Amino acid sequence: MDLPPNSSKLNRRKSDFLFLYILLIPFLFLSSKVLSATITPIGHSDWILVAKKGSKQFRYKLGKHLLVQYGNSESRFAGELIEISKDSITLIGNRNKFLSKSIAIKDIN
Question: Is the pTM of this model over 0.85?
Answer without folding.
Answer: no
